[in-house]
Amino acid sequence: MSNPSIPQQSAAADETAGPLTDLDMDPPTSSFWDEVPAHEEPIIGQAISSGNRRTSVAPQAFYPELNHRQSIDSYRGPMSRRASNSSSYGSRPPPSGGRVRRESKSSTYRASDTEPEEEDPYPHYQIRRNHSIARSMNSFGSRHSRHSDLPAGFREDDGDDSRDNADRFAVMVGYLYSRCVAQGWFKSENISGMGVVSIRMKKGIYKTFPRADPNSFDSEEIFDTLQTWDNAVAALNTEVAIKITSKVVQAIMARLYVKLSSLSWLFFERSCLFTVYCFTSHRSRHAMDIAIDANTRIQVIEKVSHLGRSRKHQYAAFARAEKCLIVWSDEVDSVIVNAETLEAKMVSYVWASAAHQEESLMTKKAVVISEKVEEFEGASNSSELGYLPELGEKAVPEETEEQLWHDAEAGVGPDEWSAESRKTRPMMLYAPIITGLAVSFNLMFVGLGARALIKEFLLDGKTLRFLLLLTSPFTFVIAMFFCISIVGNIWQLFGPVAQFYQNSAFYSGKAPERVIRNRLPHFTIIMPVYKEGLEGVIVPTIESLKVAITTYERQGGTASIMICEDGMQLWHEEEVETRKAYYDRNAIGWVARPKHGHRGFLRKGRFKKASNMNFALAVSLRIEELMDELRPVPDENEQTWVWTDEDEDALYQESLAAAVEESNGVAWAAGNVRIGEYILIIDSDTRVPEDCFLDAAAELDASPECAIIQHESDVMLVIGHYFELGIANFTRRINKAISFCCANGEVAPFVGHNAFMRWSAVQEACFVDTEDGCTKIWSESHVSEDFDMALRLQMKGYTVRWATYSNGGFKEGVSLTCDDELNRWQKYGYGCSELLFYPLKSWFTKGPVTVLFKTFLFSNIPLHSKISVAAYISSYYSISIAAVLCLLNFFLIGILEDVLSSFYLESWKVFLTCIVIFSGAGNICSSIFLYRLKVESLGSSLVSNFKWIFFFFFFFSGMSWHVQAALVAHLVSYNMLWGSTIKEVEISNFFKEVPAILKRFWPAYLFAGGQIVIMIIFSTSLLPEAYRVTSMTAIIPLAVQAACHILYPIVLNPWLMMFSF
């Protein structure tokens, strides 16, 4: 969901050229632009004439996208230190040295004498990262991509630097510099704080504006300043960066120094009460933020050289030593707009501060910064320190400030602020009522059948017919889902709806209060990837994540992305290098496993998602173990011992290198693969809300018993043909039905994506796989690994929660073809059979019912939820037996109708009942329910539901054989495999589709064709009249099944049916 105030970026911004839409403005009226040629740069030490006209731009929200880099202070517990975001699996820590040589003639700075010189026809200033900064991102056993890391619209060819390329970068960096001068952003008279603009030409090579004048008397100092700047920008690894030293920045930095002076006295006076962290030491892990407004905090680093260790997704940082602001961006197009928007916020901040400064200084003794104050403020940052509040705003309300000091003196600790103060969520009891009524209806139907048998017994006295009661348990289970649907429809019409906007034990209908009692936690976004396209699928998802990460980092937290690459080692070399380069540019951690059979490696499981994530998590956990083993223990007698960021980075790289040696070259990995306190698990075709992490952090912090927050997902449309729209409608209705159940009190499901997970709970629920003796997080022996995970967590005492307050912000892709959707239903059916039954060959040794399902039945999960889950599982069996029962019904009704007991319910009646309940009443009640929730108007909802009736008629009527095949495959131990869902549009036509249909659906065609032949034979004179079937109630259900199985891949195929509705 796009925000008009946010500069929108292309999904493939790093790979393709694009127009400078944000820079298409009239250049400022400055003599600079006319005097400096495109290929030249201003020289520091010479006078530059420029205008001071300010360009008027309407303020916009400052939420740019950028490369991610993780902060060290974002981990808890055993993962308490930052991992380097630029380490690679299989590489040792880089040397810390690197002699820098100055070339006075060419103004080109190189970080190593060993690098070959490149002739540059134009004077410019650029830097090659020295080895102490350039941490290798190469994967084990691989080399860097030859793709250049240039901004969109400025990509170079694979050849040497050309005159045209130099001109392009010189023009753009000069233009950006002139814009900054015209805006008045370069006002500092101090050389260390002079304004600078840099654009990345290649990885580690930056075009910087301006350059030093060798003839200037202070050229050496300018040279050192510029080299420090370029080293810092290269370590940050961003596309473009600007150092701003405007008056408003100077004003904010001046106030910062005043605050630090007052804090020094405060820390001295209150040192006995609170834990004090050092603000001014560059060795301190605890950075400080300045709250520009309620949703924008800008980090403060000690000096520019520390820029590489900043939180990259904040997109800006104040440098205390140089008294400047650094703004950077992933795209050259947006950096000016982003800086202008941030400037407007800073001006508002300074203006509001000045208006209340005198009153604030008179009424406030000091600014209190501590963990206790953070708890009252309701917000904190990842550095475990509160941010500096705006001048004129009290850090603590007046009525609570004295109480804070009293509590501190009394020794109130964190334990008193935890469980007792958290609100207990109520248990909603509507679901037990609905389930109980459904069970009553089901028992009534069974009783009606028994009543029919008793009446017949009273007529003829035959007791043999009572054997039919043995089928009652099976019909009870099969009919349970149907009965719940009936009661649910009635409840949607007349039941209460207020609970949908409330919070309960298993449901979150409204966003939590954003009160974090400790620092903001670190989130790790885990995204399993198979062989999805980089440009079409992965890049748009990453861009969506980067916006959300930016928002969270501006709020004070940190987040990182970890990709579980299942296809990296399967691609050809060019594609592998392209992906590595993209992950490197965006600071994405990734782990790739080899193909099946490589060096004896086995990809276990029928659905490879679980084993893929297990492999990546095993690498991450092994690195943590090695870091714990290698991390030095401080000497108690050594008072000056410190552990710096550089030490932690070096330790991470060393552990990474040790881990790859243990893998014997099996694993590839790069970037930060450490796991934070919470996990967001998504699919590769996902969109996330811009502001979702803070709500999740608040909710998980307030509910320590909650292990998973599963968000309701909307649909992300890719192509918009009628099949995708139909499945999108079905997906939305299913999600609303789940919301209906959870709001009423059902235990929430875990669907495996778009869910926040508590990492400590996940580790607690891990198990030892009996097949290989390894500890696993996800079950590789179940297709439904998400159900297994949810069950293990609930058995450990945790809960799963369904959340709807994101209002459709989470989006997921749906199947684009009927073939792919069929694979999903087969996978779900197979998973349900795995949960319930062992394969037939194990029945004599283990029994038919699995230990997992027995555990579920005897767990502490509420009884009504057990019934609901069993009803859901039984729905797959209901679908699978439809074709077989219709065939059986054809013979029973057609030939034996006269002797059949009334206990038997013929297929025709079942067929009509399903149409009335699901297609009729279900659509009407769902529409009225959405209208009552004020989600959608009644008319549009009715139209949306009823226009898909024929679509779902063919969809469900043509699925029976295929779901049945999956259930039988599990029972007979047939190795049935599925790949990942197709997420990209594959243009097809008639000549491609027909062979594909025949190849995939020929068993179903044989089955349906046999049914048609049977109907023809038994309706003609080829058989005696006693064996002829002429009853329409026997023919219609079977004819519908046969026709829909034949037409399923035809009428639901958009490439064959080129029409839309």
Automatic annotation (TrEMBL):
Matching SUPFAM superfamilies: Nucleotide-diphospho-sugar transferases
Ranges annotated as biased composition (Low complexity): 77-91
Ranges where the Glycosyltransferase 2-like domain occurs: 678-892
Domain DUF7928: 168-258, 278-360
Residue ranges, compositional bias (Polar residues): 1-11, 47-58
Keywords for this protein: Membrane, Transmembrane, Transmembrane helix
Region (Disordered): 1-125, 138-163
InterPro entries according to UniProt: DUF7928, Glyco_trans_2-like, Nucleotide-diphossugar_trans
Name of the protein: Uncharacterized protein
Top-level taxon of origin: Eukaryota
One Pfam family matching this protein: Glyco_trans_2_3
Transmembrane segments: 429-454, 466-491, 876-896, 908-929, 949-972, 1002-1023, 1035-1056
